[in-house]
Each structure stands twice: as structure tokens, then as C-alpha cells.
Amino acid sequence: MGKILGIAIKNYGSLKNIKMGKLFSDQTGDELGNMVAIIGASGNGKSTLADAFGFISDCLSADVETACDANNRGGYDHLVSQNSNEPIHFEIYYKETYNSRPITYELTIAKDKMDRPYVKEERLRQRRPGIKRGWPLSFLYLIDGKGYAFEGVEGGQDEDGSVVGDKKIVELSDTRKLGIVTLGAMKQYSRIEMFLAFLKSWYLCYFAPDAARQIQTAAPVQYLNRTGSNLNNVAQYMYRENPGEFKKILADIQTKIPNITKIEPVKLQNGQMVLQFWQQGFEQPFFSQRMSDGTLKLFAYYLLLHERNPRQLVFVEEPENGLYHQYLANLAIEMKRNVGTGFLKQLFVTTHSPFFVNALSPDQVWVLEKGADGFSNAKQAASYDFVKELVDEGASMGDLWYSKYFG
Ligand SMILES: Nc1ncnc2c1ncn2[C@@H]1O[C@H](COP(=O)(O)OP(=O)(O)OP(=O)(O)O)[C@@H](O)[C@H]1O
Ligand SMILES: [Mg+2]
Fold first, then answer.
1. Best substitution site from 9, 12, 14, 351 to test ligand 1's pocket, by max atoms within 8 Å of Cβ?
2. Where does residue 330 rank: exposed (0-12), middle (13-18), buried (19+ CB within 10 A)?
3. Which CATH number does the domain 204-360 belong to among 1.20.58.110, 3.40.50.720, 3.20.20.70, 3.40.50.300?
């Protein structure tokens, strides 16, 4: 459970200083909702934003230097905003459930004396139970790998140094690794463990139909990977965990994919699971490998929305690629319906499609623009003149965007 109410990013490529939603350090603006669409002209930083989420994910499974080099990032010097002498910085404002106290996570990545990227500063803060105002207490604070942490669900240190609860002095042996990864592996640091579990559940999705056509091993896998190449393995997992429920999911998905009348799982002799699709006009089914790119993609998105124990934050890049434009409004409606308003799931989507955006409201759409300095600015569509009023009068967001009312 959990979602981010806001995020600020500094010095990450074209994102020299952007803020989306509400933060502890800047409470202006609305909290981010469960559906966040990001639009903007080419080069305005949409993929950079998706990659910033991916970078944070990568920092959990590798050291920060490896994360700077991974996924074509080209290393710290190419990653950090040009002309900036400041380090890369993230601030995430997170809440686990409706009633829980928000947590602020700050992470600064800079270069050490040896010119290698390292974790310069890391901090987690939360207010004490029942306290609504004032500064939250730091329950993890590390500078250059040295600092303190607090066990349990309360406690922390105030700005003036006063301590509530049991303070543990911490020194990391490797400053290229995140403190939350080291400490979050220990049960006693339950808040850090919970926050780490939230970050670990993030998922970046770049579905590629060709990848989904590859023959996979027979192993069941819980979650779709970045390209969707393990589609059949995930289907196998869902079937194994609960065949009745999986068949119901397939029956539901089938109603959303045009021209498909039935989808059924078939177990092969070697244990592998394949999916059969019945298509309008044909008596015999087709294996998933024979389906069109768009059909496979739609299927993968809908399967993603139905994953058991869903990932809490999913970032989808340009779902419109390879999809017939008329399918996009329905996909957006289904995504919106699926994430709901609670704390189970949050979906970020970059898009160039007015058809997709037509299904959204002004508070769900964020525009990345380029300023005169060449860096990106993020602005909620609701804050453009007339947009809210026109939508209240019945205009659609995609149409307004196309007509240049915003974006
Ligand atoms: N270190 C850096 N400092 C400043 N700007 C950078 C840095 N590295 C890359 N850029 C710029 O950031 C931009 C990245 O654009 P990005 O790929 O995020 O755009 P996009 O909105 O996804 O575009 P598209 O719609 O084409 O996919 C490019 O204009 C690139 O020149
Ligand atoms: Mg892009």
C-alpha cells in the first residue's frame, strides 16, 4: 500500500528543478492523484522523468555508480544537469494509507573526492503520531554514510537536536549504496523496511510486442518485466495461483480487446503455458505469438492492471505506440478505473495522444515545458487559464490540448 503525494527532482538531466504535487518542503499545490499523465513536446523531459523513477529503482538493486551507468544513462557527468554545479537530488513525499502520517525521503547523489558518484545525503522524516504541525522528526539521517537511525514506528530527532525514542548511530561501509537498502533489510527498522518495500515495488513499463512473442521457459513469474517478454510466464503464475480467478480476468479482458471473442490458457506437455485467442470470424484459436502488435500490447496492459498483489507505482511510457487511436480513450478509462482513489496503486503515463488525454481530468494531466534556459518545467493542466472552466462546460482535455489551450 502507499502512494507518492509529490516529488521534486533537481539536476537530473533536463529536470534541473521540477516539482509535481505536494511536498513537505513545499505544501503549495494539490497532492498527486492515482493517475498522472505527463504530456509535452519532444525533448521536454517526459522520458527523463520516467528514467528518474527508474534511476531510483536501480539505486536499490545496485550501487549509485552502477545506476548512473545503467540504461544508457552514460554516467554521472552526462546525467547531471549541464551547467549545474549542484548534485542530483530527489525529494519524495509518501503516504502509506489515508490515515497514516506522510513520510519525506530526501536523497542527494554527488561525486566524492575520487570523482566517483556516491550517496552524499539521505534522510527520512515523519511527524510523531497525533502531531499535526511543526517539523517532522528525522528517523534516518546520513551524511557521507554517517549518521543515525531510529527503530520502530515512532521516534526521531528534531531540527534542534532533541531526541525522542532510541537513537542508533549508523556508519555505512559503502557510501555508494543507499542507507535505506542496508537498514531496510533489518526488521527493527520497520518504517525504513516499509518505505523500501514501496520503492522496490515500482515498475517501469516499455512493452514491446516482439519481446512478448519470444518463447519463454516454463517457469511461472509473478510480475511482468519491462518489455512484457514474460507475458506467458505471468499468465502461468496467475493461472497456478487461482485458475478460476484467472479465467474470469481473461473473460473480462476479452471484452476490452476489439475482435477477440475468447481468451483461454492452454498448458503444453512441457509445462509451459500459452494463451489462445479466438478471433471474430475464425473457428480455430490463434496462439498469442500470432496476434497483432496492438492486440498483444492491449492484452499486456490489461493483464498489468490485473496483476495479483499489484505493484504500487507503475510508470508507462507512451502506451499509444502501435495502438489504434480509437482504443486509447478506453484504455485510459480502464486505467483510471483500475487505480481508483485509494492507496493500492498509482499510475504515471507519458503520452503524445490527445485520444488518451481526452479521458482525463485537468488535475490528472501534467505538462512538461522547456524554459528559456533549456530546462524542463512541470505544470498541472488545471493551472492553465480557462482549462478547468472549459472542461466543466463539457470540453475534453485532449481536444483542448490539441487546440493549444495548454501544453
Ligand atoms: N545532462 C543534461 N542536462 C540538460 N539537459 C539534458 C541533459 N541530458 C539530456 N538533456 C536533454 O534533455 C532532453 C531529454 O528529453 P526526453 O528524452 O526526456 O524528452 P521526451 O519528452 O521524452 O521527448 P519525446 O517526446 O521525444 O520522447 C533532451 O532535450 C536532451 O537534450
Ligand atoms: Mg520520450
1. 14
2. middle
3. 3.40.50.300
